[in-house]
Design a protein that fits this description.
about 20% helix, alpha+beta, 5 helices, single chain, 2 domains, eight-stranded mixed beta sheet, about 230 residues, about 30% strand, Alpha-Beta Plaits
Length: about 230
């Protein structure tokens, strides 16, 4: 029986961005065991902690406000959970906040924000390209994985913002899917910036049961609040 449930926001940066989602789950499992927290386990022959990630982070992307929910068999103060997990976290994984939520609440993502650095010389005509993309009624891309298909990503594009030296994109997440940040770059003829070494940062996740991402957290998307 689940007695307690908390929502944890964390950062995944540095070399840790190169570990897979599966490896991240195992990392959290080791942290929970070493922290001796009374986590609730799955059933079956190989029980695991009941950890539910709001949205898996793709390999190679920095996560600045990732969300995972943890079920517990005993009530533990959020600040105690925060302290114990922080003590066991490896370099590149930082626990930001821990808050108690109702056991029946599930963190469904509504919007997600990505940011990527853009060379200054590529920004000259970018405002015009952004305006054209936002004004388009449809924007079709060829998606290769997990199967080849043609998809209109325009319904998922909520906002684009050109910052000094960077591009910020806010994408809607729906039951039917979402756009991928690399696809938006391709539509803006910027697909090569990642190949040249630019790194995507996922700066925020907004959940359906939250009005906004907590303002105290670093890296909030500039256009997230009040844009929906």
């Amino acid at each position: 029986m689940v007695r307690d449930k908390v929502r944890i926001r964390f950062k995944k940066t540095g070399n840790l961005r190169m570990i897979s989602h599966h490896d991240l789950m195992r990392c959290f499992e080791r942290m929970l065991r070493r922290a001796t927290l009374p986590f609730h386990s799955t059933e079956g022959f190989n029980p695991k902690p009941r950890l539910i990630f709001a949205l898996p982070l793709p390999l190679g992307i920095v996560g600045l406000q990732e969300v995972v929910e943890l079920e517990l068999d005993l009530v533990v103060a959020p600040e105690e959970i925060h302290r114990r997990l922080a003590e066991q976290a490896p370099l590149g994984l930082e626990i930001l906040t821990v808050e108690r939520i109702d056991a029946g609440v599930k963190g469904h993502v509504r919007t997600v924000c990505y940011r990527v650095a853009v060379p200054r010389e590529r920004c000259d005509n970018l405002e015009e390209a952004i305006a054209g993309l936002m004004a388009a009624s449809a924007s079709w891309v060829e998606r290769q994985r997990p199967r080849q298909r043609r998809i209109d990503v325009r319904p998922y594009l909520n906002d684009l913002r050109l910052l000094p030296g960077a591009l910020e994109m806010e994408l809607l997440v729906t039951p039917n899917g979402t756009a991928r940040p690399g696809e938006i770059l391709e539509l803006l003829d910027l697909g090569d910036v990642v190949q040249a070494g630019a790194i995507f940062e996922r700066t925020s996740l907004e959940l359906e049961d939250e009005n906004t991402v907590p303002a105290t957290l670093p890296g909030n998307c500039s256009q997230l609040k009040g844009s929906l």
